[in-house]
Amino acid sequence: MTETLRFEGRTLGATVSRTADRWFVAVQVEVPEHQALRRRSGHGTVGVDLGIKSAATLSNGDSIQAPRPLKAALRRLKIRSRRLSRQLEAARLAVGLAPGARPPRGTRLPVSNNRRKSAAKLARLHARIANLRADFTHQLTTRLCRENQAVVIEDLNVRGMLANDRLARAIGDVGFGMFRQQMNYKAQRYGTRLVVADRWYPSSRLCSVCGWKYEALTLRERTWACADCGTHHDREHNAARNLERLATATALPVASPAGNGGAAAGRVPAVAGKVTPVSHECGQQGASGQEERCEHLCSPF
């Protein structure tokens, strides 16, 4: 191996995997709980609005851009994919198959050295794209959990969003699903309280200043002005500020089963009425000095 084990403890097992032309070994080690936990450097609260234009917009005003590795490498990816496809087609013709025909079961196509090289180059490019995306997501999620005692995110329907043919590539390039997965376990590692807002909570439509709800907001509108208090909002920043309130508010607009955000038309008080179902995955101080994980679900009073 190229590096020594990072933890000392009882070895439980190992998993060997191959990505492109590289081999990896993941070793499972049983260690005391205090070794797996990390210490936070900050105690703030932040709301995070994920998007395509900006990968993450924070309630403190920061806007974080994603590297979009697939978009950057798309031209090279197409060239290498077409080259490999032509070589596969030549192999089919070499065994007497018609162009585009699927080889019968058990038929072994001849593999040339050039075809092996093309397949390896394509696999390395796919691995590079995945590594760049994972590295960005790891840095972002580690920063959020390390610098804040509470982080509020939305429960995005990633599978449903990927069904949109126009946005699927851009959404997949940002990695929403990977972000949620990493936030779940890093919140436990740093003892950070992770609040997951209800899927239908209208974070973009509510005015973060007075609570008025803009019912007619469309996806194309990136900025809007509140008709009640006159505040001009950036769509993503306003949504992040509304999400931040969920970490401290004791009562918020209830989400309706119809999926329209659930709040009554007009003004929506910041702290009034019923509670939006919000999943709290939080940490509480334990005997080890770090925070232990707990979960509960807010319900209407």
Unreliably modeled segments: 250-301
Strand order of the largest sheet: 5-4-3-6-7-10-11
Provide a count of the helices: 7
- Could you tell me the number of beta strands? 11
**What is the H-and-E element order?**
EEHEEEHHEHHHEEEHEE
Oligomer: single chain
Q: Which value, in Å, is the CA radius of gyration?
A: 24 Å
Proportion of residues in extended strands: 15-25%
Q: Which structural class best describes the helix and strand composition? A: alpha+beta
Helix percent reads 25-40%
Average per-residue pLDDT, rounded, comes to 81
Largest sheet: 7 strands, mixed
The shape is flat
Spatial gap, N to C terminus: 56 Å
Written overview of the protein:
By secondary structure, the protein is α+β, with helices and mostly antiparallel strands. The chain contains seven helices and eleven strands. It has helices at residues 33-36, 69-94, 113-147, 158-162, 168-174, 176-190, 235-245, and strands at 10-19, 22-30, 44-50, 56-58, 63-64, 148-154, 193-197, 223-225, 232-234, 279-285, 291-297. The strands form three sheets. The protein has a seven-stranded mixed beta sheet with strand order 5-4-3-6-7-10-11. Strands 1-2 form a two-stranded antiparallel sheet. The longest helix is centred in the middle third of the chain and has 35 residues, at 113-147. The radius of gyration is 24 Å and the shape is flat. This is IS200/IS605 family element transposase accessory protein TnpB.
